[in-house]
From TrEMBL:
Keyword terms: Hydrolase
Signal peptide, first to last residue: none
Organism (species): Roseicyclus elongatus DSM 19469
Record-linked InterPro entries: 6-phosphogluconolactonase_DevB (IPR005900), 6PGL (IPR039104), Glc/Gal-6P_isomerase (IPR006148), NagB/RpiA_transferase-like (IPR037171)
Record's catalysed reaction(s): 6-phospho-D-glucono-1,5-lactone + H2O = 6-phospho-D-gluconate + H(+)
Organism domain of life: Bacteria
Domain Glucosamine/galactosamine-6-phosphate isomerase: 8-222
One GO MF term: 6-phosphogluconolactonase activity
Protein name: 6-phosphogluconolactonase
Function summary: Hydrolysis of 6-phosphogluconolactone to 6-phosphogluconate.
Length: 224
């Protein structure tokens, strides 16, 4: 795979990637008033957050938005917002602006308008970091999800509610046009199963392998 960087181990990858993201944000802030960073939740990015939160950046000029959120309150261990607050938006990064992808209403549909309005001023994304599942989903663009075709379309709204077998609870996700509009894109994956999955995705269409929607513009970072 042409755009894949292979690292000797996970720790080295997380450190390098955090440094790279920090330098891309700093570069953006040289010629823009503000920068927007979008990050995944899930289990992979924690060590990147640990390093990034200590970086000396103009955090008060940086907006942070999740790629996607599970529709659960912040008291749930499944809440990506809670993960960000506990592990990223602390220390120096506490000065960043969190753009919410969750509101305490029963379904994501009920919050879509309000959250989309809040998101729009922070677009386009300056630096996009994505994770990926072994099923080739990225953000909450899951194969077989109810609103996948809508979210992949060129005219998709910025945020889409999503339900899928592999997703657990209902989700809200940035749509493909928002992801594709990012100025710099990185995908971080670990282990042999995800490595095989991303190689496979390169030969599939986005409706089968949603990560494919951003693959051409992304640098993939992999460690075993
Ligand atoms: O909320 C989420 O679930 C994520 O944003 C999602 O897209 C994630 O990046 C992948 O599912 C990989 O998750 P892991 O890193 O936990 O394998």
């Amino acid at each position: 795979m042409r755009n894949l960087i292979e690292y000797p181990d996970r720790e080295a990858m997380m450190l390098d990637l955090a440094d790279l993201i920090a330098s891309e944000l700093a570069e953006t802030l040289l010629h823009e008033d503000r920068a927007t960073l979008s990050v995944p939740g899930g289990t992979t990015p924690g060590p990147i957050f640990d390093v990034l939160s200590e970086q000396a950046l103009d955090w008060d000029r940086i907006s942070v938005v999740l790629n996607d959120e599970r529709w659960v309150g912040e008291d749930s261990p499944r809440s990506n917002t809670a993960l960000l607050k506990q592990r990223f938006l602390i220390s120096r990064a506490a000065a960043a602006t969190l753009v919410p992808l969750y509101a305490p209403v029963p379904t994501p549909e009920e919050a879509l308008d309000e959250l989309s309005l809040g998101l729009k001023p922070h677009l386009p994304i300056s630096v996009l970091l994505l994770g990926m599942g072994a099923d080739m989903h990225t953000a909450s663009l899951f194969p077989g999800a109810d609103n996948l075709a809508l979210a992949l379309g060129n005219q998709a709204p910025p945020l889409v509610a999503m339900r899928a077998d592999g997703a657990g609870e209902p989700r809200i996700t940035l749509s493909a046009p928002v992801l594709k509009g990012a100025l710099r894109t990185h995908i971080v994956i670990t282990g042999p199963e995800k490595r095989a999955a991303i190689e496979r995705a390169a030969h599939l269409s986005p409706d089968k392998a949603p990560v494919r929607a951003v693959l051409a513009q992304a640098t993939v970072h992999w460690a075993d």
